[in-house]
């Protein structure tokens, strides 16, 4: 999966809140129509966007890496150009050098960071994503942790969902907790801390309204039980929402990750795939420090900490892997 594989390039998977899931090719279709020469740019009333030089690319890529930990290779230069080119036009800037200076010096530079986050992150997600891994979590690690906590007389469970995008992952975990505990959930202190870099994604997550597309792999019975039908789609019920607390956390900033309350379980799926090894190590250290002894870390199916950290014990399962911090 590449850095730029999300709906922003037309895969049509932006699924949260008011956003519409566009069919494949629609988002990117305008640009491809222009480049394939079907209609001249002037006829469409569109301005040509600036070209990015290698030097401008290096500076911008370094800036993005330092702020977000996201690593963009020179091979993806054209994608940065595509995604940010229109932004330059909106700001009345002619070159990427001017845009870089804007990011350093303009009075609106803090707000522009939000735009950059939007443009460079891949936010693809869905409810019940990677059902096999979630099944193992629900039937084994979750059950085990709840039983252990109960035996200790501590009816509390803390989970961190890092890089939660528009909220589908932490809400899925909250639903699984309802399923595991049933009515007895009222006697438990449960907190799912859900974070993302992108303020726009966090706004969608807090709203908790989703289209059919976001729920495409969710069992029908679960939708009926935990969602209310609303005009814009399906809204997560308050009893699910109240288990989840959303807030901004930047995994590339240790001061930010240290503020996350300690957890029994950490989910960080499909996030570190966009980081280089140095940044991956930083994130894994943050998860290790955050986890309570005996806690579990769940990464995406194509992500591994092999060669990056020996701190965790791998727990291989058929079709999935998770990592355990020693007791
Ligand atoms: C592909 S989504 C994964 C969503 C969810 N975890 C899942 O697997 O369905 C990746 C998310 O990571 C977030 N992200 C990227 N870099 C981050 C960073 N440095 N700190 C926090 N979140 C980050 C992005 O904003 C994006 O919403």
UniProtKB/TrEMBL annotation:
Occurrences of domain CheR-type methyltransferase (ranges): 45-327
InterPro entries on file: Bact_Chemotaxis_MeTrfase, Chemotaxis_MeTrfase_CheR, CheR_C, CheR_MeTrfase, CheR_N, CheR_N_sf, SAM-dependent_MTases_sf
Catalysed conversion reaction: L-glutamyl-[protein] + S-adenosyl-L-methionine = [protein]-L-glutamate 5-O-methyl ester + S-adenosyl-L-homocysteine
Record Pfam families: CheR, CheR_N
Cited SUPFAM superfamilies: Chemotaxis receptor methyltransferase CheR, N-terminal domain, S-adenosyl-L-methionine-dependent methyltransferases
Keyword Nucleus: no
Low complexity compositional bias, start-end: 1-12
Region entry Disordered, spans: 1-21
Protein name listed in UniProt: protein-glutamate O-methyltransferase
């Amino acid at each position: 999966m590449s850095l730029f594989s999300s709906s922003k390039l037309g895969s049509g998977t932006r699924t949260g809140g008011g956003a519409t899931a566009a069919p494949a090719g629609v988002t990117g279709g305008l640009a491809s129509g222009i480049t394939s020469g079907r209609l001249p740019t002037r006829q469409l009333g569109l301005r040509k966007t600036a070209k990015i030089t290698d030097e401008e690319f290096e500076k911008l890529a370094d800036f993005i890496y330092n702020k977000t930990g996201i690593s963009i290779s020179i091979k993806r230069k054209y994608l940065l150009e595509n995604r940010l080119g229109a932004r330059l036009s909106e700001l009345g800037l002619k070159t990427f050098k001017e845009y870089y200076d804007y990011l350093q010096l303009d009075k609106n530079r803090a707000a522009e960071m939000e735009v950059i986050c939007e443009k460079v992150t891949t936010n693809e997600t869905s409810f019940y994503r990677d059902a096999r891994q979630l099944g193992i979590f629900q039937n084994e690690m979750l059950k085990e942790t709840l039983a252990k906590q109960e035996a200790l007389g501590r009816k509390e469970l803390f989970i961190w969902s890092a890089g939660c995008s528009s909220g589908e992952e932490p809400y899925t975990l909250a639903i699984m907790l309802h399923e595991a505990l049933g009515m007895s959930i009222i006697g438990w202190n449960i907190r799912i801390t859900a974070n993302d870099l992108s303020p726009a994604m966090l706004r969608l997550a807090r709203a908790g309204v989703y289209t059919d597309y976001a729920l495409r792999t969710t069992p029908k019975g679960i939708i009926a039980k935990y969602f209310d039908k609303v005009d814009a789609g399906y809204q997560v019920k308050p009893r699910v929402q109240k288990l989840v607390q959303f807030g901004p956390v930047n995994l590339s900033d240790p001061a930010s990750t240290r503020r996350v309350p300690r957890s029994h379980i950490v989910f960080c799926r499909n996030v570190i795939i966009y980081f280089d090894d140095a940044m991956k190590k930083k994130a894994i250290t943050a998860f290790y420090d955050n986890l309570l002894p005996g806690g579990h870390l769940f990464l995406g199916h194509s992500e591994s900490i092999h060669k990056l950290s020996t701190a965790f014990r791998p727990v291989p399962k058929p079709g999935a892997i998770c990592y355990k911090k020693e007791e």
